Amino acid sequence: MNKSKNFLCALALAGATLNMTSCMDNKNPFYSEYSTPHQTVPFDKIKLEHYEPAIMEGIKQHAAEVEAIITNPETPTFENTIVALEYAGNLLDRVVTVFFTLNSAETSDEMQALAQKLSPVLTEHSNNISLDERLFARVKAVYETTDMSTLTPEEQRLLQKSYDGFARNGANLSEEDKAKYRELTTALSKATLDFGQNMLKATNAYTLNITDSARLSGMPESALEAAAQTAKEKGHEGWTFTLHAPSYSPVMMYCEDRDLRRELYMAFNTQNVQDNENNNEELVKQIANLRLEVAQLLGYECFADYVLENRMAENATNVNLLLDQLLTAYLPAAKEEVKAVQEMAARIEGKDFELMAWDWSFYAEKLRVEKYSLNDEMVRPYFKLENVTNGVFGLATRLYGITFVENKDIPVFHPDVKAYDVLDKDGSYLAVIYTDFFPRAGKRSGAWMTSFKEQYKKDGVDSRPHVSITMNFTKPTDTKPALLTQDEVETFLHEFGHALHGIFSATTYPSMGGTSVYRDFVELPSQIMENFLPKKEFLATFAYHYETGELIPDELIERIVRAQNYNVAYACIRQLSFGLLDMAWYSRTTPFDGDVKAYEQEAWAPTQLLPVVEGTNMTTRFGHIMSGGYSAGYYSYKWSEMLDADAFALFEEQGIFNEEVATSFRENVLSRGGSEHPKELYRRFRGQDATIDAMMKRDGIK
Asked: Looking at the DSSP assignment, which residues form a beta bridge with residue 431?
């Protein structure tokens, strides 16, 4: 999940009335109230040249609004200070939300250059607000004099969040240290931006063209057709492969040419560690050290301490306890899984065959077929994207009574994108959701959910959210529609769960709603949706063969169910390796100036199940923890998995489509956002705290 919002927007969220005095005559679409359906973003009118002047005007307006709060002669109160800050900066928020979201989903060289130019300007503006002693004095006065019992739980959370937002961003520092904080955060903003741009450039720079069909033996027809179409688009003969997941993954899973698998594997896993302009090794050091320096400047021993102060886990000790518990529980099973795949490979290739990383998916898939008579190509014909979309949307209808109606009058930012009105069970308007499914040169890899507009209540009006889900799925070809793999359907469910978190938001203040929750709670709404995938009752609602219209056979569903825990321990250990790597970078108390590759191998050595491949590196392309929002927080996926397994157990006890359970989940989790502590929200829904027991039971470990 990625909110795709500049960090300054905690103080600049939608809802304020625009100050039009300085821009009435300008044709910039950001300067007027949107006349589109539901006041959605007018993407069809926005041009690259509109961003910079609108951002500069937004900064000007935001600064003026903040100055008015500071110079208010009245005694600081919750309303005239905290609430006023909450709704300041509307224009700026509108612009940066669109700009940085599209910089991930539909960027260009010109847009990336503009991001480089504007990022330090936005950081400076953010610092000007968070480091303003006069403003902090007002916030602090409200914080210290307000009787918390007079506030609602959401107001209490907003006041605490507002105060912490200043304190955790340098407001209590000396003037000398504030100057240092500005310097560090400006450098960090640029470094993380550079890191992400290098990742995208490296991915887009690589293609592998094959003209000898013999080298593609074992590849499924769907993958070959997609590769042929890519070749055609790029003016090549034969078949062209890229490092985007729909192109890369089938080669690793099906291609019998081991040298070809190795070539593509090495290209993927050395993307940003090669000796060229996209190398991220120095940026890794810079980012880790800047974050450490910022944390220590603010009085913390390490960056993890700073981050985890506002997480369910609370501290590194609890994070490491979870990682250690899971490592102990799952490692023996993972070793057995690797042994089984090694034995499969040895039966085919000879007893001296050594299973390498580029062999894992290939032989693991062969063993899966042998054990369960199941592979992706068997289920792909039943997962036509349009049907999957209907199934996923229909699941929300079944659980919550909401419906989705495509609205072609809503402007979109790319022809692949669709926009839908979301209607509540009483038929009232609830939200807008955009879907963006296919890879392209201007889109970064991965999948994420973001918001173009948050939900809030003001002046008696419940202003509803606009959310977006972005994926990189298998594209349609000249002869076939988009047919998804099981993993892609799971990804769809995951990001849609994030979207529901935004869609159902029912909070008062925009910074409290939707996915504005602790990072180790935010994955609960997304991951709980994944549990529905192998359920027969769910598959029967949409899984029709794209040619024959036949419903997916019960026998094939049974194979899916039996195979759902195949290599689940290996997958867990892989996730733990990323969590250990993340904590290694951000639990440091001293600056790093060593070898990035060697440090990585040391950090995740306890999880190493296959031989180390020299020259590869994960950290240099690990956007989640370097340029995204999961630094010192990647453990959140396993923390939330503990929650989602425990939560879904209630659905299974009462029936997976049980409306009472779904209503409780909506009311106690999805609609509440960050308005209360997540522990309280979870207990209210589940009646207990979560442990790893339900997850281990679901995975067949216990």
From this structure: 422
3-state class (DSSP) for residue 7: helix
**What is the C-alpha radius of gyration for the chain, rounded to an integer number of angstroms?**
25
Q: What CATH code is assigned to 380-564?
A: 1.10.1370.40
Check for a shared fold between 7-172 and 380-564. yes
Q: What is the pTM of this model?
A: 0.89
Catalytic residue at 106? no
Residues, the chain, total?
702
Residue carrying the six token digits 């990336």: 112
What does the pLDDT average to over 89-101?
96
Task: Please pick, among 86, 155, 365, 495, the residue that the annotation labels catalytic.
Answer: 495
Each residue's pLDDT tens digit, 261-312 = 999 999 999 999 999 999 999 999 999 999 999 999 999 999 999 999 999 9
Domain boundary assignment for the chain: 7-172, 206-269, 380-564
CATH of the structural domain 7-172, one choice from 2.30.290.10, 1.10.1370.40, 1.10.260.40, 3.20.20.140: 1.10.1370.40
Range 326-343 burial, b when 16+ CB lie within 10 A, else e:
bbebbbebbeebbeebbe
CA distances from 346 to 257, 341, 353, 355, 642 (A): 16, 9, 6, 9, 36
Beta bridge partners of 404: 422
- Measured in whole angstroms, the distance separating CA 260 from the mean position of its chain's CA atoms is 31
The residue type found at 308 is: L
Distance from the Cα of residue 351 to its chain's centroid = 42
DSSP run (H or E) holding 451: strand 448-453
Q: What residue type is 363 in one-letter code?
A: Y
Q: What are 586-595's pLDDT values in tens digits?
A: 999 999 999 9
Is residue 418 a contact partner of residue 429, using CB atoms and an 8 Å limit?
Answer: no
Residue 414 · residue 3 · CB < 8 Å: no
